C-alpha cells in the first residue's frame, strides 16, 4: 500500500543523519562542555571519546523499543486511516529539527533535542489532525502526576532547579571537606575511591535501567538494578585503591615539570581548494577555548576561587571517567530517541501502514542506530566547539573539581527523573548544574555567572517548541494542502 512512498524512507534516512549531526553539535557538545572547559579533555579527545562510546552505546544497548510518538505528545490513533500522512509528518519533523539544531548551535544556544522533536510532533499533529489530537494534558500515576505537553513545560523549571541544587551541594561539600583544606591533595586521594564508587554506581544503574532491554536486563526490578549497580560501584572503588600511589606520583611529576627548550611551531604552508576545507576542520577540532577569555568572561574566570593545582589535577581522572560513562549512556538512550521519527517511518513502511504506539526496530535497528551514532560523532567533530565554548568557558569558570560536580549532579537528576518518568532534558540538567556550581562563587550576587549567555540560553529553550513546531507545520502543509493537478486546493489530507 505504501510502495509509492519509498522516497520518504530514503529522504528520511538522509534527514535523520543530518539531524543526528545537529544533535552531536548541540546536545553532545553541551554534554562535553564541562570536561573541555575544565581542560580535563581537549576538543579532539572529546570527539574521540564520543566517536567510540556514542556509537558503542547506540549499537550495543540502544536497540530497545523506541517511542514513535515522542513522550506521548500525539495520539497515534488519529493517523490509523492515513499512515502515509504520519510518515511524511515524521520526515518533516526531522528536517525542522535538523535545521533548528544547527541554527541554535551557530548562535551558541544549547537547546533540548527532545523538546525540539516534541515541538515538531505538535506542529505536525495540529496541521494534519487538529488541536484535539495533541495530548496537552494527561494524568499519570507517579510524580509529577502530569503528562503530555504540560509535563514538558513543567520540566523546563524542574530539571535546571533540581540539577543546580544537587550539583551545587556536591561542589559545596567537596570544597568544604577537600578543596579548602591545607592537605587537600592528600585528602583528594582518600576521597577518590568514594567518588569512583558513586560515579560508577550511578552510571551503571542508568545503563541497566534505561538500556537493559538491549542486554537482557529488562526483567530486573529497580531494587535489583540498584543492588547490581552498588556492587559494581563498590568493586570499582576497591579496584582503584592500589593504583592511587602511582596516580599521585604522576600528578606530582606533571605539576613539577623539568625546564625544556621552547618548541618553535612550524610555519603552515598555504592551502588551496579542498585542503582549505580540511584545514578548517582541523582548526575546529584543535580549538583553543582559552582564546575566548576576554572582557567579562576573563573577569569571571580571574575572580573565581583558586584551589591547589595538584588537587585539581586529581579530579581530571574522575571527569574523564564520567565523560566516558555519560557518552556511552547517551548513545544507549538519547541516540535511540533522536532517530525515533525515522524508526517510525521504516517500521510503518515495512508493516505496510500498520500503526502502533510503540515500534520495535527489528532487523533494521542496528543499521538505524549506527547511522545515528555516526552522525552524532560527525556533528560534534565538525561543529561541536560552538556549544562547548559557550557553556564550558563563557558561562562561568569550570575547573576539574567544578566540572566533576556538574557532571555528577546532572547525571543524578537525569537518573532520578528517568526512574520517576519525569520528561527531563539532559541539556537543561547540564546547564542547571553549571549554574548551581557557579552560583557558589558569590551566592548573594551570583557574580560568577555570565547572565548574558544564560538569558540567551533561556530564550532558546522558550522558542524551541514554537520554531520547530511552526516550521514543521509549514513544511507538511505545503505537502498535503498543495494545489492539485486541476489547480484546485485539495480538500483532503492526501500527499
UniProtKB/TrEMBL annotation:
Pfam families from the UniProt entry: PHO4
Membrane topology annotation: Multi-pass membrane protein
A molecular function (GO) term: phosphate transmembrane transporter activity
InterPro entries: Phos_transporter
Any single GO CC term annotated in Swiss-Prot or TrEMBL for this entry: membrane
Record field: transmembrane: 6-25, 46-65, 85-107, 145-178, 190-209, 221-244, 364-385, 453-477
Localization of this protein: Membrane
Key words of the record: Membrane, Transmembrane, Transmembrane helix, Transport
Main location: membrane
GO-annotated biological processes: phosphate ion transmembrane transport
Keyword tRNA processing: no
Protein name: Phosphate transporter
Organism: viral metagenome
